[in-house]
Amino acid sequence: MRFHIMTLFPDIFNSYMGESIMKRGVEKGIIEVNVYNIRDFSNNKHKKVDDYPFGGGAGMVMTPQPIYDTYKHIIETNNIEKPRVIYLTPKGKVYKQSIAQDISKEEDIILLCGHYEGIDERILELIVTDEVSIGDYVLTGGELPALILIDSISRLIPGVLNQNESFEEESFKDNLLEYPQYTRPREFMGLEVPEVLLSGNHKNIDEWRHNESIKITKERRPDLYKKACK
Ligand code: ADE
């Protein structure tokens, strides 16, 4: 899968993608991350990428020309036909695991990171296919949300995670939160690992874990619990 990122702050991506599981996915050739600096595509002699909003108001708005030309460059140089272009914005659809799963089926994804008071609305009409928010709070830009999408989507692509890092049993599978995990030692600061996990009886272990998942989901996320019971 190829991620193409349109941003004013390309350096943010290099350090994150150079670590741990993301790094491994890139080295194995399973994921590719191409970062494009929108400023490089500005026709303005001072490389300006923003301007005052028509109608007045606080802050600056990103102008359409550099964004549109970055987009054209991406689709032309990478031979992409009808790309999904995701604009990260607090006004978007709230992100969740099922959206990550849906996007993970694409070959190419373009992520558009906004800044300032947002981008010119005509860009949304012309090129954006999806608007995504990572939650009900406002950040200074779309870079952290873009990294969240890249991370959560990449780990769903076969080969990025090792077998023992499997995502088969994890939170949000079947709308349940994950059961508690324990490792050595058996006793820590007077707290014991639940007996059933030491029993070697896999039927009982599975049953215990399933019940714990239900209990924790009911307590913490009644909204998910309702869906899980459907
Ligand atoms: N840009 C600023 N805040 C954001 C959010 N919550 N989600 C996605 N993009 C954003």
Gist of the model:
The chain is of the alpha/beta class. The protein has helices at residues 11-17, 20-27, 64-77, 97-103, 121-126, 143-154, 202-220, 222-228; strands spanning 2-7, 32-37, 50-51, 61-62, 84-94, 108-113, 130-133, 187-188, 191-192. The strands form 3 sheets. A 5-stranded parallel β-sheet has the order 2-1-6-5-7. Strands 3-4 form a two-stranded antiparallel ribbon.
Q: What is the total domain count?
A: 2
Question: CATH H level of the largest domain: which superfamily?
Answer: SPOUT methyltransferase, trefoil knot domain
The count of β-strands is 9
Distance between the termini: 34 Å
Oligomer: single chain
Characterize the overall form.
Answer: elongated
Separate helix tally: 8
Strand content: 15-25%
Identify every distinct bound molecule in the structure, by name, code or SMILES. Answer: adenine
Determine the CATH topology of the largest domain: Alpha/beta knot
Overall structural class, as computed from helix and strand content, comes to: alpha/beta
Q: What does the largest sheet look like?
A: 5 strands, parallel
Portion in helices? 25-40%
Give the rounded overall mean pLDDT.
95
Using only CA atoms, what is the Rg?
A: 22 Å
In the predicted model, the low-confidence regions spanning at least 5 consecutive residues are none
The secondary-structure element order is EHHEEEHEHEHEHEEHH
Cross-sheet strand order for the largest sheet: 2-1-6-5-7
* CATH class membership of the largest domain: Alpha Beta
GO molecular function: tRNA (guanine(37)-N1)-methyltransferase activity
Family: Belongs to the RNA methyltransferase TrmD family.
Protein name: tRNA (guanine-N(1)-)-methyltransferase
Subcellular location: Cytoplasm
